[in-house]
Every structure is written in C-alpha cells, then in structure tokens.
Amino acid sequence: MRKINILLLIILFISCVDKEKAKSFFENGKAKYYTSNYKEAIKDFSKAIELDSKYAEAYYERGITKAQLKERDNQGVNEDINKAIELDNKYREAYYTCRMKRVLHDYEEAIKDCTKAIDDSKPNYEKAYYERGHAKNSLKDYKGAIEDLTKTIEIDNKDREAYIELGYAKDNLKDYKGAIKDIDKAIELDNKYKKAYYNRGHVKDNLRDYKGAIEDYTKVIELDPKDVVAYVSRGYAKGKTKDYKGAIEDYTKVIELDPKDVEAYISRGYAKGKIRDYKGAIEDYTKAVELDPKDLVVYVGRGLAYKEIGKKKETENDFKKAKELGYK
C-alpha cells in the first residue's frame, strides 16, 4: 500500500511538472505569435500539447496561429479549434468564434460575433472590442475601428496591440501625428515590439520623415535580422534620401533572404540606374523578367537602361513589350 501511495505521489509530481513546462511553452508560443513568428509559435504550442494533451487553450492558440500562415492548413486549423471546443465548451462562446473568424478573414461575421460578445458582457468582452476594431480596420471602416479600439484602451490601457491597431486606423485617415502618438505608447509598453517600430517607420514614410523611418526600420532589423520587409522598406527610404548605395545594400540583403523576390530585383535595378551602373541595372531587370515575364515595369526600366548605353534595338524591343502589357 505504501509503495502504491509513493508511486501515485511520483506520478502526481511528474504531472504537475509537465503542466508547468507546458505552460512555459504556451507562454513562449504566445510571445512568438505577437512578433509574427508563427512557425516557431506553432512549435511551442505543439510542445505544450505534448506535455499536456488536455491543454485546450494551447489547441485554440495553435489553430489561430496556423490560420496566420501564408500556406494556410485549413484542416489543421479546424482540427485544433474543434479539439479546443471538445476539451472546453467556452470556446463556443462569441468572443472565441469572433477571434477565429477574424483571423480567417471572415470579417463581417467576426463583427457580428464580437458584437454579441460585447452585448452579453461575458468574460473577455473587452477583448471583443479589440477584435471588432481589428476586423473593422480590415474592412477599411477606420472611424468605426477607432471607436472600438479607443474603448479597448479605456478598459485596458496597457494593451499594446490595441495601440498598434489604433495607430493603423489613424494612419489610414492621414492623422499621422495621432498614429505616431499611439505607436509610441505601444513601444513605451514594450520596447522590443518589432511590429510597432515597423508601423511607425511606415507612418514616418508618409510624413516624408525618411531619416526617422530609416531609424525605425533599422531597429526592426536589429530585433530580427531576417525580416525581409524591413530591408525592403529601409531600402525604399534610403532611396528617397538619395542614398542609392545604401538602398542597393538593403535590396541585396532581401535577395539573399529571398532569391525569388521580383520587386527586390526591380528596386535594386532602379537604384543601380540612379548611380549610372546601367549594366548592373540591366542584369537585375533581366532577372526580374525571368521571374515574372508579365511585369511591364521591368521592361520599361530595362528599356531606359538600354537607352542610356545606346542599345537602340534592345530599347525598342523592351518598350514594345511594355506597350503590349498595357504601358501607355
């Protein structure tokens, strides 16, 4: 009897340890989710589930995260959400279905469920304002989004995501100073929040504060040296300040990270043209043609580069092709 009791205590201890480890992986997964590191987040949620097979929240969050992937695994999303519901009936509630529909881009239905969650005033209803505001942003109802996101912040003034979405709505309404103020608050709450620096850089681009934008994109790159979008955006901002060599360096990095990025070859070709490296520009435009033969911008750019080095026939051929594709 004593041995059985000891064995039960050992099993109970191991179970408690596994649940603590599972919680740790779950929290790591959520942190990665909020930095858009979805593949790594899924790994952490999966590890949490391995350690605790009845971890409903981990199934739910893994399903939500799978929905964010470019190559969405719809079957996997549905299986995880259904498993979460099977383990805990609360995931049938309006807030959870609202969030799920929002990440699946079913925005109008998401708004309906969020509104129901708000009307019911059940737990998490304050988060429903955020989800509804997010969905309204996606539908370009920026004024409606601002109302919901402002309400979210009134309830929880430390919700960094709400400040980001609020800034996004204001940016789209050309209230750039208001947008920066909101994003500044998100950074104040989390100074390693990559998305906040990127969004602020974008707003500064709109204000033509390219130096400030470059600083923000550089911060994104410091936080994530493999962020392709940050290199593209910084390259654009450098081009606007006529730092074409710096822009070329950034576009080269993009190509290293993603050799099939057509826009990177086009942008680098343009920057090379600005420093009169026409041969290099032609090489980049030619690579872009190989990747996307129907992009008329490439033919115009390469045609202009050929013109600069006196290749009349090649110039005519590229302009002719551009016109066939719709260039006027």
Give an overview in words.
With 328 residues, this protein is mainly α. The protein has four domains: 1-84, Tetratricopeptide repeat domain (Serine Threonine Protein Phosphatase 5, Tetratricopeptide repeat, Alpha Horseshoe), CATH 1.25.40.10; 93-191, Tetratricopeptide repeat domain (Serine Threonine Protein Phosphatase 5, Tetratricopeptide repeat), CATH 1.25.40; 208-258, Serine Threonine Protein Phosphatase 5, Tetratricopeptide repeat, CATH 1.25.40.10; 260-328, Alpha Horseshoe (Serine Threonine Protein Phosphatase 5, Tetratricopeptide repeat), CATH 1.25.40. Helix content is 78%, strand content 0%. The longest helix has 32 residues, at 2-33.
Spell out the key features of this protein.
328 residues, Serine Threonine Protein Phosphatase 5, Tetratricopeptide repeat, 4 domains, 18 helices, 78% helix
